[in-house]
Write a structure and sequence with these properties.
- The complex is a heterodimer of chains A (478) and B (249).
- Chain A contains twelve helices and 23 strands.
- Chain A has helices spanning 2-10, 32-41, 46-61, 99-107, 114-119, 137-142, 150-156, 158-164, 175-183, 425-433, 438-454, 459-472, and strands at 23-25, 84-86, 121-127, 130-134, 146-149, 186-192, 201-207, 217-223, 228-236, 244-246, 249-254, 259-267, 280-290, 296-303, 308-311, 314-317, 323-332, 337-346, 352-362, 366-375, 383-393, 398-407, 413-422.
- Chain B has one domain: P-loop containing nucleotide triphosphate hydrolases (Rossmann fold, 3-Layer(aba) Sandwich).
- Chain B is built from nine helices and twelve strands.
- Chain B has a six-stranded mixed sheet with strand order 6-9-10-3-11-12, sandwiched between helices.
- With 249 residues, chain B is α/β, with parallel strands linked by helices.
- The radius of gyration of chain B is 18 Å and the shape is globular.
- Classes of the chains: A alpha/beta (478), B alpha/beta (249).
- At the A-B interface, helix 10 and helix 11 of A face helix 2, strand 7 and helix 3 of B.
- The complex binds adenosine-5'-diphosphate and magnesium ion (MG).
- Adenosine-5'-diphosphate binds next to strand 2 and helix 1 of chain B.
Chain lengths: 478, 249
C-alpha cells in the first residue's frame, strides 16, 4: 500500500494523458441547428427533440448563476463544441473496441474485463459522449435490470424516459441544467424492477477526452418498489490547457421501499498546481426524489478534482418515512475552488435526513459549504442531523460555511454541529518522532478526518478515495 | 551510543541549555533530575530533532552527528522519545498510527512490513505488558486519554517500536503507584545490553524501580552534578538548593 502511495505522490497528475483516437466532432457553437443535429445523429424520437428545443429556449432566457463563492473567467458557450464521438459505434463485444481506447482504460486502472468479473462490477464506460462498451449486460438482464447508455434507453425504453426524464430536475431548474437538457449527448440509464436487489454494484467511469468539447452527461436511475441499487461514479480527466466545462445532470427516483445509494469519487483535472490554469469546471446538478413511503436515497461523494466545483446533491423527501443522506468529502488544494453542499427538502411525515460534510482546504484552495434543510408544513416529525467539519492546512486557504435552515413545522427536530480544525505542527512532529513522514502523517490525519464519509463508500472505492486524497494533497505541507 | 558535546541551546535568544556534556553507552540507563524549567524537556526535544532551536555544540548518535537530521530520520535511526505531553491526534486510530510507525521503521531497515492481521497479533501481546484494555487500540491517538493512560500509551509505543535509544520525559509524572509500577515494568522489559535510556524525572520514585546506572542533576540548563542512585536520594532529601547555591557562587 505505501509503495502505491509513494508512487502516487511522486507523479504529477497521473491521468494527464490524451488518447489519440479519431473523433467525430462538431465545430464549436450552439444554436437550434446544433440541437437538431445532435438529436438526428442519435435518431431520437420526436418527444426528445421537442424537449431539447424547449430546454434550449429556456436556457436562452436564463442567466449564469453568480451566487456561488467561486470566480472564473466568463465562459464562451459559442466556443464549445457540443458533440464529439469515437467514430466506431454499436459494438457487440470488447474485441471491437479500439485497442487504444482499451489501453486508455487500462492506464486509468479501469478493469473492464476479468477484473470486473471478479469484483462483480459492471461498467458502462462513457468515453466522451458516446458509450462504447457495456459489460455484464446479460447477468443484469436476468434480473430484469436495465443498465445501458442513455441514448440506448431512449431507443429501447422511450416510455420510461418520457415518464421520468426531467421529473426530478426539470429543464427549467437552473442555467446549467437547462443547458444540459438541450445538448446532452449521453450518459447512463438504470432501471431496477420491483423487488429486485441489483446483484452487483453498477459503475460508470467518465472521462473527458476531446479538447474543447463540453461534457453534458445525463444520468437517470429509477428504483422501482422494494428494489435496491448501489451506483458508483468515478472520474478522471486528462491534462489540458483550455478550461473544460462539465455540466452533468443526475436524476434519481426511488419508489416505495426502494433504496438508491449513489457514490462518487471525482478527480477531474484540477488545473496546473502553480497557476491553476487548465482545470475542469464542474457544474453539476444532482438530485433524487424519495417519491413514496419508506424510500431512501444516499449520496456519498469524494471530490478532490476540478478547478471549480459547483455541486449540491440533494434529496426531495416526498414519501412518508423516507430517508435522505449526504456524506461528502471535498478537498481543495492549490488554486481549486469548490462551492458544494446539499439540500434536504422534507415534504413527507417522519422523514429523516443526515448530512455529514468534511471540507479540507490546502494551498490557496477556497471552499464553501452550503447546506439547505427545508421542513415543509406537512412534514410532521421530520428530523435532520447536520455535521459540517472543516480542516485547514496552511494559512492561505479558506473555508466558509452557509447553513440555510427553513422550518415550517414545529414538530421538526434539528441538530447541527460544526467544527474547524487544522493540522498542528505538534501533531506532525509527534508523527515524525515515531518515524512517520510528514506526507504520510498528513494523509493519516486527513483520512482520519474523513473516516465517517469513507466508511459509506463501497470497499474498493474507499481505497481509491484514500489514494486520491494523498495524491491531491501532494506538497500541501512544507 | 549517545554523546552530547558542549551543547548550548536557545529559543528566541533566550539561553536554555548552557553547555551540556553527556555520554551514554549501550546497556546504560541515565537519569536526569531537575526542577521545572531547568531545561530537561528542551534537551529531550533537541535530541529528537524538534524545530525552532538555536543550537551550538553537537549531539552524536553512534558516532554520527544528529543535528542535520530530521526528526523522522532520527526516529528511523532508532531514537524514541516518550513525550512529557503526548499529542492528541483526533480521528486517527491508535492501532493504525502504531502500525504506520512500525512499518515505516521496518521499511527503513529493508524488512518486510506487517499486514493488518500480523500487526494486530503483535500489538495485542504488547498491550498486555502495559496492562491497558484492548479497547484503547481502537480509539483515536491519545484522544480523551487520562494523563496516566497517555503515558502508558507512550510505553506501548516504545515496546512496539523497540528503538535502540529511548528518552522518557517525565513518564512518571502524575501517575499513582500502581501505574508507576506498570510503567517501570514496561521499561524494564524494554531494557537490554544493546539499548540505552535517558529518563527525565523529578522524583526518585521511578528510579527506585528502574535502578539507573548514572544520575545527573540539572539546574538552569547545566548538569551540575553526576553520581549514582545515591545522588537521587540526596536530591530527594535535601532538594536542589544545596546544589544551586554552590553553583551560583
Ligand atoms: N518554545 C519556547 N519558547 C520560549 N521559552 C521556552 C520554550 N520552550 C521552553 N521554554 C523555556 O525554557 C525553559 C526550559 O523549559 P523545559 O525544557 O520545558 O524545562 P523542563 O522540562 O526542565 O521543565 C523554561 O524556562 C521554559 O519556559
Ligand atoms: Mg519538561
Amino acid at each position: 500500500m505505501s509503495d502505491v502511495i509513494k508512487q502516487a505522490i511522486d507523479q504529477e497528475y497521473k491521468y494527464g494523458f490524451v488518447t489519440d483516437i479519431e473523433q467525430d466532432t462538431f465545430p464549436p457553437g450552439l444554436d437550434e441547428g446544433v440541437i437538431r443535429a445532435i438529436s438526428a445523429i442519435k435518431e431520437e424520437p420526436e418527444f426528445m427533440l421537442e424537449w431539447r428545443l424547449k430546454s434550449y429556449k429556456q436556457w436562452l432566457k436564463m442567466e449564469e448563476p453568480t451566487w456561488a463563492k467561486v470566480s472564473y473567467p466568463e465562459i464562451d458557450y459559442q466556443a464549445i463544441s457540443y458533440y464529439s464521438a469515437p467514430k466506431k459505434k454499436e459494438l457487440n463485444s470488447l474485441d471491437e473496441v479500439d485497442p487504444e481506447l482499451l489501453e486508455t482504460y487500462t492506464k486509468l486502472g479501469i478493469p473492464l474485463e476479468e477484473q470486473k468479473m471478479l469484483s462483480g462490477v459492471a461498467v458502462d464506460a462513457v468515453f466522451d459522449s458516446v458509450s462504447v462498451a457495456t459489460t455484464f449486460k446479460s447477468e443484469l438482464e436476468k434480473h430484469g435490470v436495465i443498465f445501458c447508455p442513455f441514448s440506448e434507453a431512449v431507443q429501447n425504453h422511450p416510455e420510461l424516459i418520457q415518464k421520468y426524464l426531467g421529473s426530478v430536475v426539470p429543464h427549467t431548474d437552473n442555467y446549467f441544467a437547462a443547458l444540459n437538457s438541450a445538448v446532452f449527448t449521453d450518459g447512463s440509464f438504470v432501471y431496477i424492477p420491483k423487488g429486485v436487489r441489483c446483484p452487483m454494484e453498477l459503475s460508470t467511469y467518465f472521462r473527458i477526452n476531446a479538447a474543447n468539447t463540453g461534457q453534458f452527461e445525463r444520468t437517470l436511475i429509477i428504483a422501482d418498489e422494494g428494489s435496491y441499487v448501489s451506483y458508483l461514479e468515478g472520474c478522471t480527466a486528462p491534462m489540458r490547457d483550455e478550461n473544460q466545462l462539465h455540466a452533468a445532470v443526475v436524476e434519481l427516483v426511488a419508489h416505495k421501499d426502494a433504496t438508491i445509494k449513489y457514490s462518487t469519487v471525482q478527480n477531474w483535472y484540477p488545473g496546473d498546481p502553480k497557476t491553476g490554469k487548465g482545470g475542469i469546471y464542474n457544474f453539476v446538478t444532482k438530485r433524487g426524489t424519495c417519491l413514496e413511503e419508506n424510500s431512501k436515497i444516499s449520496w456519498t461523494q469524494v471530490e478532490t478534482g476540478s478547478a471549480i466545483t459547483w455541486k449540491y446533491p440533494s434529496c426531495i423527501l416526498k414519501g412518508d418515512n423516507s430517508v435522505g443522506e449526504f456524506y461528502s468529502v471535498a478537498l481543495t488544494n492549490n488554486f481549486q475552488q469548490a462551492d458544494t453542499g446539499t439540500k434536504m427538502v422534507h415534504l413527507g411525515k417522519n422523514t429523516k435526513s443526515t448530512i455529514i460534510s468534511k471540507g479540507i482546504s490546502a494551498g490557496k484552495g477556497q471552499q464553501t459549504y452550503r447546506g439547505g434543510v427545508k421542513i415543509l408544513k406537512n412534514a410532521h416529525n421530520a428530523r435532520n442531523y447536520s455535521q459540517c467539519d472543516s480542516m485547514l492546512i496552511g494559512d492561505k486557504c479558506g473555508a466558509h460555511t452557509f447553513p440555510y435552515i427553513d422550518v415550517r413545522n414545529p414538530s421538526a427536530q434539528m441538530e447541527h454541529e460544526a467544527s474547524t480544525s487544522s493540522i498542528g505542527e505538534d501533531q506532525l512532529y509527534y508523527c515524525n518522532q515515531r518515524g512517520i513522514s510528514t506526507e504520510d502523517a498528513v494523509s493519516l490525519i486527513v483520512n482520519g478526518f474523513c473516516k465517517d464519509v469513507f466508511k459509506e463508500l463501497p470497499m474498493e472505492f474507499a481505497v481509491e478515495a484514500q489514494k486520491l486524497m494523498e495524491v491531491s494533497l501532494e506538497g500541501a505541507v512544507g | 551510543m549517545l554523546e552530547i558535546k558542549n551543547l548550548h541551546v536557545s529559543i528566541n535568544n533566550k539561553k536554555i541549555l548552557k553547555g551540556i556534556n553527556l555520554a551514554i553507552n549501550a546497556g546504560e540507563l541515565h537519569a536526569i533530575m531537575g526542577r521545572n524549567g531547568s531545561g530537561k524537556s528542551t534537551l529531550a526535544h533537541v535530541i529528537a530533532g524538534k524545530d525552532g532551536y538555536e543550537i551550538e555544540g553537537d549531539v552524536l548518535f553512534n558516532g554520527e552527528s544528529l543535528l542535520d537530521k530530521s526528526p523522522e530520520e532520527r526516529a528511523l535511526a532508532g531514537i524514541f522519545m516518550s513525550f512529557q505531553y503526548p499529542v492528541v491526534i483526533p480521528g486517527v486510530n491508535n492501532t493504525y498510527f502504531l502500525k504506520a510507525a512500525l512499518n515505516a521503521k521496518l521499511k527503513a531497515n529493508d524488512q518486510p512490513e506487517l499486514d493488518a492481521m500480523d500487526f494486530l497479533a503483535l500489538i495485542k501481546e504488547k498491550i498486555k505488558l502495559v496492562e491497558m484494555d484492548e479497547s484503547y487500540l481502537s480509539r483515536a491517538v491519545n484522544d480523551g486519554f487520562s494523563g496516566g493512560e497517555k503515558k502508558r500509551n507512550e510505553i506501548l509505543q516504545l515496546l512496539t517500536l523497540e528503538p535502540t535509544f529511548a528518552i522518557l520525559d517525565e513518564t512518571d509524572s502524575g501517575l499513582d503507584i500502581d501505574a508507576l509500577k506498570i510503567i517501570a515494568n514496561g521499561v524494564n522489559q524494554y531494557r537490554n545490553s544493546e539499548r540505552a535510556i535517558l529518563a527525565i524525572t523529578h522524583y526518585q520514585r521511578l528510579l527506585d524501580y528502574m535502578k539507573p546506572d548514572v544520575v545527573h542533576a540539572m539546574i538552569d540548563g547545566k548538569i551540575v552534578k553526576t553520581g549514582d542512585m545515591s545522588l537521587a536520594h540526596e536530591l530527594e532529601e535535601k532538594g536542589y538548593s544545596f546544589l544551586s547555591t554552590k553553583d551560583t557562587n
